[in-house]
Amino acid sequence: MPAVSDLEVIFEHHIWATRTLIEHCRKLTPEQLALSTPGTYGAIVPTITHIIAEDQRLLQRLTGEPAEVPVTEDGTFTLDELHTVWERQSERWRAVLAQGETLDVTLPARDPWPPVPGARPLVLLEAIQHGNDHRTHVCSVLGAHGLPIEFLCGWAFWRSTGRVPAATAPTA
């Protein structure tokens, strides 16, 4: 396996977890996708749409380039469409990370925030935190309604990469 930075591993988890969640939710019925629970963003598809839309906004802040297929919260996207957009967006994240610390970003002032020079780490942090937060919302909706939950933790990701073998059941 080629050497990757810790930050690249963290973003690969972000990419994997969102893709895995979308794939898990593609198996749900329209009625299940419409479910929500108090304390979450809302129904499943709008929440996943929000994850991807905010990711696009953060990528645009880093690169100055808009997404090829803009996703907004007021749009209606299917999980198949979101999956396709997410795959393209994943490549954009990898390209940004490949630039390393040479990418210098200053965020302009936005009320109530002043301009933020050297904001690359802040934007990357926001992408990770935001994605984790809202993926948890989707899992909370699933769990609150007795539906199966996809485990999106670091251990499951690590296992998915082949770095750790799958656990075997004990022999009798």
From TrEMBL:
Which InterPro entries does this UniProt record tie to the protein?
Answer: DinB-like (IPR024775), DinB/YfiT-like (IPR034660)
Q: Which SUPFAM superfamilies match?
A: DinB/YfiT-like putative metalloenzymes
Q: Quote the Pfam families the UniProt record gives.
A: DinB_2
Domain DinB-like spans what residues? 17-137
- Name of the protein this chain belongs to: DinB superfamily protein
Originating organism: Streptomyces cyanogenus
For this protein's source organism, the top of the classification is: Bacteria, Bacillati, Actinomycetota, Actinomycetes, Kitasatosporales
